[in-house]
Design goal:
This protein is α/β, with parallel strands linked by helices. It has 17 helices and 13 strands. Strand 11, helix 17 and strand 12 form a beta-alpha-beta unit.
């Protein structure tokens, strides 16, 4: 360890007597020193992973007065930040430039700097494999990197969504392999991210923060840390409670979305408008919360996280049937959309093979630039596989990035009456608010609407097909 590390040099390492049970953490000196730094906002906060979770979190801590270091293996992100530029639409570039100039924020891919941090927060991806098995490789590799630079008195917090027990059974053993002991030499907690890109009402600072430590001292330190930058902190008894709560939040949404997706298919056969049904049911002031159908799940949470628990349940010889059924229904939605397109074309004497298509929106939700797990790509892949010619329009995504499963070498095309008229059909996958849907319906020969975006369009409704 660095001899100039202030935490290490301030903590006695010899001659300590064995403290009473439950007191060893505070008596060691590590706890009190780190708590004091956090309360004074002198603690140096390191955030690993500067994506849609890590960068907003870095902003929240720096605005609260903490000194923040961001870490990422993506050199392009570091270059953006070094220039004072933002690569996430919701994060203003002026904040980055101001904080860098004030010495409150820096970004690096040199993980040796972790040794200088008082707090290290992990905001790394937790994807699933094609067989819906958890991929913890990012967590493990990051924990191993931290272990190489772990110093006494540091607080480590995992924010990545995962199955209950990950913090204690995966991260803790890796860190303790350094020879340091959790709760005595360093501290470890879990606090799930709850970011909702594009949400103008709730952001990092006013979304209640769940926090659970692997021991009482770790939980107390983590709570005090987050109290410095968010309005409300909710402490739970253990990291596993916080891990399970995050999974529950996402399962709740996945199951309810699957329910309305299934009803959408049924009500379409019955010639009933699912959107009107939901609006009518939502007039009940209690016992009902509206969820809305769509072309499939997207984003970094709902399509992925529930399957972490289905995988974990097998360890206990249990089947999570609700979760698995919801997953089946939601993953079938892109196929349902394509079937509706084929039916609509067939009624017009056309086939999908050779038809010309324009996709509206490849971001996973309206008014964001986040394309992770977007159902647009599933639909595009199926259309291309059936011989359709595909273009897209999305002002938030000028060019489709390379992804793990798909690579579309496409750029967003501008809208014009001629462009719309040249297509056999258009598909509204993501209903960005900057699109004039009256204009689209006026000039496109056929509109496949998966989001009820055209609900307010009065003219030429015969062109519109719900999917």
């Amino acid at each position: 360890m660095n001899s100039d590390d202030s935490l290490t040099s301030s903590v006695p390492t010899t001659g300590e007597t064995a403290p009473a049970e439950g007191q060893e953490r505070r008596d060691s000196g590590c706890f009190d020193l780190l708590l004091g730094r956090i309360e004074k906002r002198d603690a140096r906060v390191g955030i690993i992973g500067l994506g849609y979770v890590g960068l907003p979190l870095a902003r929240a801590f720096s605005l609260a007065g903490f000194s923040v270091h961001g870490f990422d293996v993506d050199e392009r992100k570091i270059e953006f930040l070094d220039r004072g530029e933002s690569y996430i639409k919701q994060i203003p570039a002026d904040w980055i430039a101001e904080c860098r100039e004030a010495g409150k924020f820096a970004a690096t891919n040199d993980f040796r700097v972790l040794r200088q941090m008082d707090v290290i927060i992990l905001c790394v991806p937790t994807p699933i494999s094609r067989h819906r098995e958890p991929d913890l490789s990012f967590i493990r590799k990051t924990a191993q990197e931290i272990r190489r630079h772990l110093s006494r008195g540091q607080l480590i917090v995992l924010e990545s969504t995962t199955f209950p027990g990950t913090t204690e059974t995966v991260v803790q053993p890796i860190l303790e392999d350094s020879g340091l002991q959790v709760g005595k030499d360093f501290f470890l907690a879990f606090s799930p991210e709850r970011e909702d890109p594009g949400n103008r009402k709730f952001g990092t600072q006013n979304i209640p923060k769940l926090v659970g430590g692997v021991d009482a001292a770790s939980g107390e330190l983590a709570c005090q840390l987050y109290r410095g930058c968010v309005e409300e902190v909710v402490q739970v008894n253990h990291a596993q409670i916080a891990e399970a709560a995050k999974i529950l939040e996402n399962i709740y949404r996945a199951v309810n979305i699957a329910l309305v997706n299934e009803l959408k298919v049924l009500f379409d056969r019955m010639d009933i408008d699912i959107w009107e049904v939901i609006a009518a049911a939502a007039t009940k002031p209690f016992g009902f919360q509206p969820f809305y159908p769509g072309p499939g799940l997207g984003g970094h949470c709902i399509p992925i996280d529930p399957f972490y628990l289905t995988w974990k349940a097998r360890e206990y010889n249990l089947s999570t049937r609700f979760i698995e059924l919801a997953g089946e229904i939601n993953t079938q939605m892109p196929d349902y959309v394509v079937t509706r397109i084929m039916e609509a074309l067939d009624r017009r004497g056309k086939t999908l093979n050779g038809s010309r298509c324009l996709i509206f929106g490849v971001a996973y939700k309206p008014d964001v630039d986040d394309v992770r797990e977007s159902p647009a790509f599933e639909i595009m892949d199926r259309l291309l596989g059936r011989g359709a010619e595909v273009e897209y329009h999305d002002s938030y995504v000028p060019r489709i990035p390379r992804m793990r499963r798909f690579h579309f070498d496409l750029e967003s095309v501008p809208l014009s009456p001629e462009k719309l008229a040249s297509k056999d059909f258009v598909v509204i996958v993501t209903d960005h608010s900057d699109v004039d849907w009256d204009f689209v319906v006026e000039h496109a020969p056929l509109v496949i609407d998966t989001r009820n975006a055209t609900a307010g369009v009065q003219n030429e409704r015969e062109k519109i097909v719900r999917a």
